[in-house]
Specification:
Elements: E1 2-11, E2 14-24, E3 29-33, H1 40-47, E4 55-60, H2 71-74, E5 75-78, H3 90-100, H4 106-115, H5 130-142, E6 148-152, H6 160-175, E7 179-183, H7 187-193, E8 196-201, E9 204-210, H8 211-216, E10 222-226, H9 230-237, E11 245-248, E12 253-256, H10 260-269, E13 276-280, H11 284-302
Parallel strand pairs: 3-7, 3-8, 5-6, 6-7
Antiparallel strand pairs: 1-2, 1-4, 8-9, 10-12, 10-13, 11-12
The chain binds adenosine-5'-triphosphate.
Adenosine-5'-triphosphate binds next to strand 2 and helix 1.
């Protein structure tokens, strides 16, 4: 479990993280979202003791990172996959990490196998693709078999097979009861991976909720309607009888505030033919855009 209490980081006049309080629970994949510059990486760095908070604290299973006797066995992290010295061979990099953290060298072979890098373990890291570097970073994070994993943009540079692999890995780690905190800008990917979301904007907490609650709370669910007499349909559906609102698009209508069944019945009663009638469910991307747009507008008004 990771607990943040009034966590704050100021760089000069920039409030990178502002009074952030939340808990990242075990047994779940928690997605960490926010626009560019929202403070996600800074928060992760403070959890890992790489940056000192201006105020507040980050605790991992009750203690700051630095107070854990073998931190790599408690928390594994992938922050910047390119941070490894390019002249080093992959296996040597992991061996060095294992030795300095009291981890058996046999574990190096295990994690190389786990991430699919066993064949290239003797190659220099400088020649690795971004995807291979990401896999090496994940191997390093898994080295201490930690209960808590923190991944900053882990799918960056991975091909579709690699993306599927890491999604499965994260879901399996959470199913084993571990705590998984992951940031990503890929909303469709996050929607398939995370159970819970923490969203920040301008360093502040703006949502801390289950994925389904977050998406379900969006107002973006609508009924998509197509037919040969769109103008007549728009008139019929938009007369405000049932609180429905109609938006006209090129070849279809988007109707909110009603159901597909009600739209179908109205059309049928008026003798109008429909070519398409579908409920379009809200997506994480739509819910996220709606929320962060409000925050930006709100910040703009008050600035
Ligand atoms: N070392 C630093 N010195 C000064 N300002 C910094 C430093 N690190 C981060 N910042 C600023 O703090 C804010 C938060 O940055 P951070 O990298 O944590 O955001 P982020 O949410 O991870 O962004 P991204 O999605 O673009 O990676 C930004 O305004 C950034 O410019």
């Amino acid at each position: 479990m990771i607990e943040l209490t009034s966590l704050t980081k100021r760089y000069g006049s920039t409030m990178a993280v502002d009074e952030l309080s939340c808990t990242v629970h075990s047994g779940l994949v928690t997605g960490f979202l926010g626009p560019n510059g929202a403070g996600k990486s800074t928060t992760m760095r403070m959890i890992l003791g790489l940056d000192h908070p201006t105020r507040g604290e980050a605790r991992i299973d009750g203690k700051p990172y630095a107070e854990h006797r073998h931190p790599l066995r408690k928390v594994g992290a992938l922050l910047d996959a390119r941070a490894v010295h390019g002249g080093r061979k992959a296996r040597d990099h992991l061996l060095c990490l294992a030795q300095s953290n009291g981890i058996a060298s046999s574990r190096v072979e295990e994690v190389l196998d786990l991430v699919g890098l066993a064949e290239v373990a003797r190659r220099r890291v400088g020649g690795f693709s971004l995807g291979m570097s990401q896999r090496l970073g994940i191997a390093a994070a898994m080295l201490g078999d930690p209960e808590i994993l923190i991944f900053d943009e882990p799918v960056n540079g991975l091909d579709p097979e690699g993306i599927l692999w890491i999604r499965t890995l994260m879901r399996d780690l959470a199913a084993e009861g571990r705590t998984v905190l992951v940031s990503s800008h890929l909303m469709s990917e996050m929607a398939q991976t995370a159970d819970h979301l923490i969203v920040i904007g301008r360093g502040r907490l703006i949502a801390d909720t289950r994925m389904d609650t977050f998406i379900g709370g969006s107002s973006q669910r609508y009924v998509r309607v197509r037919g040969p007499r769109l103008a007549r349909l728009a008139e019929l559906l938009g007369d405000g009888r049932d609180g429905a609102r109609v938006e006209r698009h090129d070849d279809h209508l988007r109707v909110t505030g009603t159901t597909a069944a009600a739209v179908g019945e109205s059309a049928s009663a008026a003798g109008l033919t429909l070519h398409e009638l579908a409920t379009v469910e809200p997506t994480l991307e739509a819910a996220y855009m709606e929320l962060t747009q409000d925050i930006t507008e709100f910040a703009g008004v008050t600035a």
